[in-house]
Design a protein that fits this description.
The complex is a heterodimer of chains A (about 450) and B (about 140). Chain A contains 19 helices and no strands. Chain A has about 450 residues and is an all-alpha fold. Among the domains of chain A are: about 100 residues; about 120 residues, no CATH class. In chain A, helix 2 packs across helix 3 and helix 17 packs antiparallel against helix 18. The longest helix of chain A has 25 residues. The relative contact order of chain A is 0.05. Chain B has a single domain, classed as Alpha-Beta Plaits, CATH 3.30.70.1060. In chain B, strands 2-5-1-6 form a four-stranded antiparallel β-sheet, covered by helices on one side. A two-stranded antiparallel ribbon of chain B has the order 3-4. The longest helix of chain B has 16 residues. The chains are: A mainly alpha (about 450), B alpha+beta (about 140). Chains A and B meet through helix 1, helix 5, helix 10, helix 13 and helix 15 of A and helix 2, helix 3, helix 5 and helix 6 of B.
Chain lengths: ~450, ~140
């Protein structure tokens, strides 16, 4: 044995029972809440009971030790609390009585056969359905997108209200109110707790995907000095995406979104300079890209493509564009012609002026600045892009590459006026001056 | 955070005894659970060290030694790469692993270095790199 000092067995105090309970909670919370929602058909109540079980664990486990099967312990405790509460409230008399009886029977069965695996826990299939149902409810269309993201992180990510508030840069009270209101809205809207049928599934999945991508982008937008919880949102969204891909393995766009997030996350550590300044894609040191995530992203994209039957959705198309960059060993070996094709398909399936602008830039890279300008010019009349600094900036860049320096100067000056970011402003003014100098030569 | 989960060998795994059907089933279920929790990034099982080779470094010299190797307890029988939120979470997941070996064995958890562990040391070249605006490629690609 090479080790110099014998290692000491860990004691429960090593990183505190608190850290252990927190870790267990984040593993078990979604399963626990998912099962309670199935039984009680009330998200607010299910979450309250799960929280009660957590509080009980925090009280008991420091002295009793953590049970061998903490998930089952939490579930049993939550069921006992459910019975107490149902007895006390007696709101819907008959339903409550039937539910109480069902819960009591379950608890008795669990007590009678304590060795039969995990008696208090649902089977794997039921658990999958529980989690999927929970995702659908948290991302229900009756809620605002912000509320969907908050509820998803709370119910499926096991994050506390305070953590979610810090991640989204809002005061805790605001976030607490948002979550309370979301749960109330779900109750008032009497949302269905059954899993949607095949026809409804796609639309509901779309909503979940949009929420996961919203969470991911919030993390992606984090800057140096932000609370560490903000960039961690990328990990959280990726984790939930991977879970969803395991729960709905036949849904092409789920794999498409996972591919997109894996590929974007692969560049996270290459896209910021030590001083916090952003490094754009074409200037990044590609050796710093995360090969493991690129490999996973390309695999997920292949899965999405094989399931889509030649009709890739918007996430898979964006992932395909990201994959073109990931595959290029150097920036100037990027397959821009292929990227343009993907943008064409993306514009056809999900038209957007911003996508059209990106397509114009890709066209300029593939076929030269004149072709790019021809693609960009119609967008100058697009009202949705009127205040968009990147349009003016891209316009200036193409004009400058064509030697039309006077016009380029005007475009850069306009872009500088439109952006509020000082760093960008300084850069755009510099480009305007360079164009002016070139024009006077 | 990313952690490597290192499964240590025992005399049985080193002699090439394959896990029985029960263990394979249990491990399969456990792996599925890891995937469904979004924890699993990668993982492989390794042949016994008898099929392995070591390359010893000393100054400019390289010496190749064929397996098997002694000190069974320090040998590796397999590994996983996981994405977890804390060491505490990694420990909770490892505890749920079915006992992977016939004899006594160990699983080691090691955090993978992250960017922040290196500070600025690795990035001097990046400082000089000019940040240029090329439409919004990075945001949308």
């Amino acid at each position: 044995m090479p080790s110099t000092s014998p290692s000491r067995p860990r004691t429960p105090h090593d990183d505190g029972i608190g850290a252990r309970v927190a870790a267990i909670w984040r593993i078990e919370a979604p399963k626990l809440i998912g099962a309670l929602v199935r039984m009680l058909r009330d998200v607010g109540l299910a979450e309250d009971l799960a929280q009660d079980a957590l509080v009980a664990a925090l009280e008991r486990w420091p002295s009793s030790g953590v049970p061998d099967n903490p998930g089952a312990w939490l579930m049993t405790t939550a069921k006992h609390r459910a019975i107490d509460r149902l007895r006390r409230e007696r709101l819907h008399h008959e339903q409550a009585a039937a539910l109480t009886l069902a819960l009591e029977t379950q608890l008795q069965d669990a007590q009678r056969a304590p060795d039969a695996g995990e008696p208090a826990l649902p089977t794997a299939d039921t658990m999958d359905d529980d989690l999927l149902r929970l995702m659908f409810i948290a991302c229900h269309p009756v809620l605002t997108p912000e509320a969907r993201a908050a509820l998803t992180l709370r119910l499926l990510g096991g994050l506390s209200t305070d953590e979610i508030a810090r991640a989204f840069l809002v005061p805790e009270a605001t976030m607490a109110q948002r979550i309370v209101r979301a749960k109330r809205t779900l109750g008032e809207a009497r949302v269905a707790f059954e899993l949607p049928d095949a026809a409804g599934l796609a639309a509901r999945l779309d909503s979940v995907l949009a929420v996961l991508y919203l969470i991911f982008n919030e993390g992606y937008a984090a800057t140096a000095g932000d609370d560490a919880l903000r960039p961690a949102l990328c990990d959280e969204a990726l984790r939930l995406g991977r879970i969803l891909a395991a729960l709905a393995p036949r849904a092409a766009e789920v794999h498409g979104l996972v591919a997109l997030m894996e590929l974007q996350a692969s560049r996270l550590r290459a896209r910021t300079a030590p001083d916090g300044a952003p490094i754009l894609l074409m200037d990044q040191d590609r050796r710093r890209w995360d090969r493991l995530l690129i490999g996973r992203g390309l695999a997920a994209l292949a899965m999405a493509d094989s399931l889509a039957g030649g009709q890739p959705g918007p996430y898979a198309l964006q992932a395909a564009i990201a994959a073109c960059h990931a595959r290029a060993p150097e920036a100037d070996r990027t397959d821009w012609a292929r990227i343009v094709q993907h943008y064409d398909a993306l514009l056809a399936s999900a038209p957007s002026p911003v996508v059209a602008l990106n397509r114009a830039v890709a066209v300029s890279m593939a076929h030269g600045p004149a072709a790019g300008l021809a693609a960009l010019t119609p967008l100058l009349a697009e009202p949705a892009l009127a205040g968009y600094p990147w349009l003016a900036s891209a316009h200036g860049d193409l004009l400058s590459r064509l030697g039309r320096h006077h016009e380029a100067q005007a475009a850069f000056e306009q872009a500088a006026m439109l952006t509020r970011n000082r760093r960008e402003q300084a850069f755009l003014r510099q480009r305007a001056q360079a164009s002016a100098a070139a024009a006077s030569r | 955070m990313r952690v490597m989960i290192i499964l240590k060998a025992d005399a049985h795994s080193e002699s090439g005894v394959m896990p029985d059907e029960q263990l394979l089933t249990d491990m399969g279920r456990y792996n599925e659970e890891l995937v469904k929790a979004g924890v699993m990034l990668a993982g492989e099982g390794l042949h016994p060290s008898a099929k392995g080779v070591r390359v010893h470094f000393s100054g400019r010299q390289r010496t190749v030694t064929d397996g098997p190797f002694a000190e069974t307890k320090e040998l590796i029988a397999g590994f996983w790469l996981w994405q977890v939120r804390s060491m505490a979470e990694a420990i909770e997941w490892v505890k749920r692993c079915p006992n992977p070996m016939i004899g006594d064995s160990e699983i080691e958890i090691r955090p993978v270095y992250e960017m922040s562990d290196f500070g600025d040391a690795m990035t001097p070249a990046l400082r000089e790199q000019e940040t240029r605006l090329r439409a919004q490629l990075d945001a949308n690609a």
